[in-house]
Amino acid sequence: MIATAPYGPYWRQMRKFATIELLSNHRLNLLKHGRESEVKTSLQRLYQLWNKKKCSNGDKVLVEMKRWFRDVTLNNLVHEFFELAGKFVVADALPFLRWLDIGGEEKRMKKVYKELDQLVEGWLREHREKIAENEANSEEDFMGVMLSKLRDVEEHDANTINKATSLNLVLAAEDTTSITMTWALALLLNNRDALDKVQQELDIHVGKDKLLISESDTKNLVYLQSIIKETLRLYPPAPLSVTHEAIKNCTVDGYDVSAGTWLIFNLHKIHRDPHIWTDPSEFRPERFMTTHKDFDVRGNNFELIPFGSGRRMCPGISFALQVLQLTLANVLHWFEFKTPSGEAVDMREAPGLTSPKATPLEVYISPRLPAFVYNSNT
Ligand code: HEM
Fold first, then answer.
1. Which of 67, 100, 142, 327 shows the smallest number of beta carbons within 10 Å?
2. Per-residue confidence at 351, pLDDT binned at 50, 70, 90?
């Protein structure tokens, strides 16, 4: 997989390939309608759920949003993978305990791996069948493009490379994005002023008579963009980034580092460093419109690196930001959110390689726009 491959020709080729064929601005633009229609379908389902259940409890309906954000992306299998992968990092640090397989995690990991493999195997089979039926359709998505590019590679290797790369992209994208959306909504529920302010921004730039917000509309939503940065600062979904390993002896900032040394970044700590951030644990999106206006999350400001920095930096930044902006803008535009009895949201994090919210995010939803706007569009 790209994320675990050592630096070398294979990593370079696969990363270049993923960047050009899936994550480039050109490709992202081509796939824009797919993203917009996925978000629309998920919101329509949420609205229909509200419509069906509303009578039993006034016009409010209780929904678990952590699961909803996960469903917008993919499924729980991916989440289980990261939870277990986090435990494996611990097992690697204490290898003498590993053979005991305390808690049966190694066994569970093998089972999850097998299920994930079967999932991508199924996608690959579908693609091959499609190509056999109709060559013209074969390049409509990443796996299809990969199949055609790997045409000259021996079939078993081509299948392995295709499955590993496609699965890596799904794994890297799925959990991180849905976790960030859950934290963003949880933070807004605990900071109602910010929630009001972002909804006002939506009213000004989109208007209450329009239902669907497109990706091009999100460019004007600067407060929403600041909310996303502040969420990624406080709750980086990969709090320890991805482990780096020195491939040869080197010197970093005056320290001698020998080959094989692991470097683990504590992004969570960097992002809350009181020497850098005023009121580091407070949710203050405004900082990205004032004191930290020029800060981005693209690895240029080492104080804020939720996607890492440098050569191994996340190649999915633009994709992730687009999905986050599009989904959050729409969900906040369509619905009002309230916690049951107005209590604060529990902000505890679950352990793992990624850091999801430990408990469900149960909220009451009700439509925010006039009824005719939904009725003419759903
Ligand atoms: C909020 C969303 C996301 C966050 C916070 C995030 C964060 C990260 C981080 C911290 C790394 C490790 C960087 C390093 O080693 O220095 C990484 C690597 C990676 N990410 Fe993301 N990511 C996100 C979404 C995505 C998406 C949407 C994709 C692709 C569709 C993606 C694909 C990858 C890949 C392939 C790597 C491995 C890169 C390499 O080793 O060369 N990520 N990501």
1. 100
2. confident
